[in-house]
Specification:
By secondary structure, the chain is of the alpha/beta class. It has helices at residues 27-41, 71-80, 96-99, 121-135, 145-148, 192-200, 220-230, 244-252, 269-276, 289-293, 305-316, 319-334, 338-355, and strands spanning 13-18, 45-50, 64-67, 83-87, 104-108, 139-142, 156-157, 179-183, 210-214, 236-240, 256-259, 280-284, 298-300. Strands 3-2-1-4-5-6-7 form a seven-stranded parallel sheet, with helices on both faces. Strands 10-9-8-11-12-13 form a six-stranded parallel sheet, with helices on both faces. The longest helix has 18 residues, at 338-355.
Length: 362
């Protein structure tokens, strides 16, 4: 009988563990797919393990997707892998690593506990355990500096990429020089009400500006009512949720994109999508948004519609500044293409293999 191939003779086996996956469209779901495909381009054999159930509308992936595995199956999958990569900590899928000493890498994509979050005693104990588990990883990366500072020890910052197959500057769209856009979920934490209030203050001050709101969510009706009472009139349009191709076209028709988040976002990939579409980003200056938006973008004081109005008015009154920032935005986006993120993550995977068992706090 022929001998089984050694790890040096066969493809590297990477188990990508993602608590959430397709059909979800959040950052963990999208980056898990991007990285899994990218690792395959590096020659690895990849499987994705997730707690997300099989969707009604199935989709084919070039790698195996294992949904809600039984404990026995999960143990076997981890044992077979050469390296286990948690794309954001999935503690419910972690337990085999307590029994099997496998090279383990973790990527932080969202807060373990929100900054300033008030916790009960039970919650403090729960999250203390979660932090201790995360600290056991051989390599930890984070998508922003604030997340890297969120845990102890050596943490590498690898920023998110954006879906560069969808977001780019289009030659067949006419860009409105006074066009403002919002792209994202319409929920309370996203702060779209602050944007509507700030835009309303522009009425009678900036002639011909427009506000386009792309997205849907539980706050849509309230926000539409707020816009109706604000005096914006036909200057504001709600377009609902759009696919990435149409979202890119809408961005290409505008010059400024506002990210008014009330909560400190751990990163903010929409800032990269806007930059790639040639827009200037105005962002709430907290969390990971400064990393995502780049130095050419404009920050405003979080939760302060007056500060946001001031930044909007200054940009809309200075087309030369907008043009220069739009040009620099494209340079910023080019530093965050998918292949760059994938290559950095694969290098971190290889480092995980070398450093397994040594600990990060040396």
């Amino acid at each position: 009988m022929a001998n089984s191939p050694t790890p040096e003779q066969r493809p590297l086996r990477i188990a990508v563990v993602a608590h959430v996956f397709y059909p979800g469209v959040g950052g963990v779901e999208i980056t898990s797919d991007i990285l899994a495909r990218g690792f395959m381009r590096h020659g690895a054999e990849v499987s994705v393990i997730t707690n997300t159930a099989e969707p009604d509308q199935t989709r084919d992936f070039p790698y195996e997707v294992i949904r809600r595995p039984s404990p026995r199956r999960l143990f076997a999958l981890v044992r077979r892998a050469d390296v286990v990569f948690h794309n954001n900590p999935a503690i419910s899928l972690w337990w085999p690593l307590a029994l099997l000493r496998k090279p383990w890498m973790v990527s932080l994509r969202m807060w373990v506990t929100m900054p300033g979050q008030k916790l009960t005693r039970i919650q403090r104990l729960k999250y203390a355990v979660k932090y201790r588990i995360i600290q056991r990883a051989d390599v930890i990366v984070a998508n922003s500096k604030v997340l890297a500072d969120h845990v102890e020890g050596d943490v590498e910052v690898i920023p998110n990429s954006y879906r560069d197959e969808y977001f780019s500057v289009l030659d067949d769209e006419v860009r409105a020089p006074l066009g403002i856009a919002y792209l994202g979920r319409l929920s309370e934490d996203k702060g779209v009400d602050l944007l509507i209030q700030a835009a309303a203050e522009l009425v009678g001050d900036i002639e011909g500006f427009s506000l386009t709101i792309v997205g849907d969510g539980p706050e849509r009706e309230r926000l539409e009512n707020l816009a109706g009472k604000s005096g914006l009139g036909t200057a504001v349009t709600f377009l609902g949720s759009q696919g990435p191709e149409e979202a890119n076209r809408i961005l290409n028709r505008n010059s400024i994109v506002v990210i008014p988040s009330r909560m400190p976002e751990p990163f903010g990939t929409v800032a990269l999508e806007a930059a790639a579409a040639g827009c200037v980003v105005i962002y709430a200056n907290h969390g990971g948004l400064p990393d995502a938006a780049g130095s050419q973008a404009v920050g405003f004081s979080p939760l302060d519609s007056t500060s946001l109005h001031s930044r909007l008015r200054a940009l809309l009154s200075n087309p030369d500044d907008v043009f220069a920032r739009r040009r620099d935005a494209l340079t910023h986006a080019n530093r965050h293409k998918e292949n760059i993120m994938v290559d950095r993550y694969y290098a971190a995977i290889e480092r995980t293999l070398k450093e397994a068992g040594r600990g990060r706090n040396r």
